[in-house]
Amino acid sequence: MKTPLAALAAVLGTVLLTTAPAQAATCEPPGVEKFGPASVTGAIVGASVHEGKAYVVTRGQKPPVLAEFDLSTRKVVRSVTLPDAPATGEPEGAWATAVSGGKVYAGTYPVPDLYSFDLATGEVKHLHSFGRNGGFVWSLAAAPDGTLYAGTYPDGRVWEYRPDTGAVRNFGVLAAGERYVRAVAADAGNVYAGLLDKGRLVAIDRASGAVRELAQGPGGIGVVAEHGDRVLAVSGTTLIDVRKDGTDLRRVPTGAGSLDAIVSTPDGTVYGTTRPDGAVHRYRTGDEALTRIADAPSPGDETRRLALTGEGALVGFSGSGGMWTLDLPSAKAEFVDLIEAGLPSGAERPQSMLLVPNRAVYIGGHFSMDVRDLRTGEHRRFRVPGEPKDLVRRGNKIYAAIYPSGQIIAIDMRTDEVTSLGFLGHGQQRPWDLEYDPRTDKLLVASAPLGAKLDGALSVVDPDTGKTDVYEGVIPDQSLMSLSLDSGAGVVYLGGDVLGGGGTPPVRTSASVAAFDLKTRTVLWQVDPVQGNRTFQDIKVHDGLLYGVYKRNSGAWIALDLATRTVRHQGSLSGYGELTVHRGRVFASVFFGGGNAYELGTEAKLLATGLGDEWYTNPQLHFEPGSWKAWALSGRELARIGLDPRCPQS
């Protein structure tokens, strides 16, 4: 009879890569066994609609796919890939798309480049780069004369590209310290830009380049649209509706959520979808509130683009990789999975992983969960409402902390049923770390805010009722990147980040560690272990020491004596990642240097290298009980790695 691993290998195929020479009998065999793509995706970012067709760009695949989708047959009819640009690097997707002059234009990330796809010939061209690797083209709009306008990160600029001549210019600094032009729209005379950090809506004269402010929002502006003599913008839970000359400014509450996509009709009626629920709403200038007209066609999903068809239908494209139509008179919706419609799927960079010993490996992707059954070797995949940043098990359920909603969900391992425990709220949309405390039967969440805010939070969640206590600013002026539980002592330790949400200048210079008493719900103490290191990536408590790996400065690690709160050991790894305690030892898996795994003691001992840098969040190790075998990644493939620290390394 085949073992569970053998069954899995028989289905997926196994490759053994030796990482060390033959060892003594006391060593478990080293090596890397690979089992195919860990997380498979059809997620999309950019989308545009033109003459009965939709054009979508995938997220996370290398190279990204630009696909043409027929709205009448609901099938993908052709697809191309966006090639690497030798001077800048590899794109992974394109948030920004626009159609003009018989071509689809795509603005990519993490290289902020512009590509074109000729609808007649199928030719793909790289046109221009707006910056270096690590940047984004967040938004793209075509003016009536075909001129393109792009909003970029991290320079916070609006760029003009002339398809007829290839001429490029930018309009300079729109606001001091601004990094994100998250949304743009254009008419014959102006470009309208939404600034995420500074929350401003500005109009730029296309001829002179003069910039004027139309409105200041209560938060970052992520959606902009123009119609007639008005401009609409979304700032947090406020819809801004203003004339193009800056007069008649109206601010309309959107309710509990924020609009993530809007589209207007010729008569000025506006339709939009709200995040995080995905419901559909209607608005007209003069309304004091939005009118909900339909439940979410794709619950909990992000809408990348809305369009209207001549048949009285609203068409939406979901970030998870779906397309839906809503019949406006009847409010009935139909949903199509783009992979099932023929969109080429591919391996993406995983968000998170959880090993259920002798049962399955769960891999969190973008709006999906992949499951590898260790008993049968079978693979299945189901949708979840966002990116699972961390996973933890309690009984027959797995709990996931979801970005970008800040939602906590439960997954029944027997049925794959997904239920929501609710949202963290308090602006805490970036949950980074999640642990289960068996003593109190509570979930603990470390989170960061989204946007121009510094304070993160520790949240204590009841997994049965969803009741959540949020302790915002538990480390003042810092967000939380990690936590580590000493359940016996009733204390959770917190690792900070002085950059907070990243949209406002930090006021601290060194990341802190704090001890939080779960019974009294108070901070016992706080210390800055290393001056000048601004961000902890992960912390773990073991045997009286708190081990920490820094993201800033990348790869620095410490072992902090909890009794004296002084650093006992420290050193440097190839990069940052996550820590794991297993069989009385502390391990680190980190980015850079090829993707390395270490054991940490008085110094760092390299155990394996060449694992790659393909995690989306942070490299992780998930050890099998009683073994030195750990489930992880090798490149983008699911892998089982031999990490016996007793074995000498090559």
TrEMBL record:
InterPro entries per record: Host-pathogen_enzymatic-act, PQQ_rpt_dom, Quinoprotein_ADH-like_sf, WD40/YVTN_repeat-like_dom_sf
UniProt KW Cell inner membrane keyword: no
Residues in the signal sequence: 1-24
Keywords from the UniProt entry: Signal
Any Pfam family the entry gives: PQQ_2
Gene3D superfamilies reported for this sequence: YVTN repeat-like/Quinoprotein amine dehydrogenase (2.130.10.10)
Residues of the Pyrrolo-quinoline quinone repeat domain: 41-235
Domain of life per record: Bacteria
Record-annotated membrane-spanning stretches: none
The UniProt record lists the keyword Signal: yes
Name recorded for this polypeptide: PQQ-binding-like beta-propeller repeat protein
Native organism: Nonomuraea roseola
